[in-house]
Amino acid sequence: MTEPLVVRREIQIAAPPATVFAFLIDPEKILRWIGTEATVEPHPGGLYLVNVSGTDIARGQFTEVIPIHRLAYSFGWEGRDKTPPGSSLIEIDLIDQVGGTLLRMTHSGLPDAEACASHEQGWTHYLGRLAVAAAGGDPGPDTPRKS
Questions:
Q1: Which of 3, 59, 115, 132 is such that its CA lies 20 to 30 A from the CA of 107?
Q2: In terms of C-beta density within 10 A (0-12 exposed, 13-18 middle, 19 or more buried), how is residue 21 classed?
Q3: CB within 8 A of 78, min separation 6: which ones?
Q4: In the record, which residues are listed under signal peptide (predicted)?
């Protein structure tokens, strides 16, 4: 059996889980680290919609919401055949630790190695920005990466 195509990232954030969680579900806080527009309905079945770059729109649906501990939502891109809206799954766990929060993210259901590499690059970039913003810093203007 082959290993499924999965992106896994962990990042330490110098903020409590409740603060980090707010940066994942509050549209105003989301826009501090990713995107130009965000609409989120953080309850099972609720909409996840983030216009990441002005042209790249991520869309999915929340499947699990456990306040300050865990989020899961389907994910994909409008207008992309290989990774359409809702075609993959993002799971985020927030673990309370001394000095902050360990964020553990798994992105599964990606179609191929190229999509995995691209999403891994994106997650590394954006989780770094999230860590700065949630800790009270300013990650600065986002410089979209070239695909």
A1: 132
A2: buried
A3: 57, 58, 59, 84, 85
A4: none
DSSP 57-88: EEEEEEEEEETTTEEEEEEEETT-SSS-TTSE
Burial of 136 (0-12, 13-18, 19+ CB in 10 A): exposed
For 71, residues 6+ apart whose C-beta sits below 8 A from its C-beta are 21, 24, 25, 42, 62, 64, 65, 90, 91, 92
The structural domains of the chain, ordered by start, are 7-135 (3.30.530.20)
Which residue type occupies 33?
W
pLDDT of 98: 94
- Among candidates 29, 28, 23, which has minimal Cα distance to 11? 23
Residue 65's contacts (CB-CB under 8 Å, 6 or more residues apart) are 25, 42, 43, 44, 46, 71, 72
Partners of 96 in the β-ladder: 101
Phi and psi at residue 97, to the nearest 5°:
-140, 160
